[in-house]
Amino acid sequence: DDGVTVFMTGHVLRELMNLVPRVIAMHQGKYITEGPPQEVANNKIVLEAYLGKGSEQLA
């Protein structure tokens, strides 16, 4: 750990998820959750925010 933070934003989530050890999810400027990429990608609130209600069945 070099004490360096890199802030990266993007809309190609699959690529970002493979590059980083930790993700912060936001929707419409509001914080949703944070954690390891797989955990965030499977979060019910994140799925609903990005894919709509009922999308947790797709995960």
Automatic annotation (TrEMBL):
The keyword tRNA-binding does not apply. Gene3D superfamilies: P-loop containing nucleotide triphosphate hydrolases. GO terms for molecular function: ATP binding. GO terms for cellular component: plasma membrane. Keywords: ATP-binding, Nucleotide-binding, Transport. The keyword Nucleotide-binding applies. Coiled coil: none annotated. Residues 32-54 form the Branched-chain amino acid ATP-binding cassette transporter C-terminal domain. InterPro entries: ABC_AA/LPS_Transport, BCA_ABC_TP_C, P-loop_NTPase. This is Branched-chain amino acid ATP-binding cassette transporter C-terminal domain-containing protein. It comes from marine sediment metagenome. The lineage of its organism: unclassified sequences, metagenomes, ecological metagenomes.
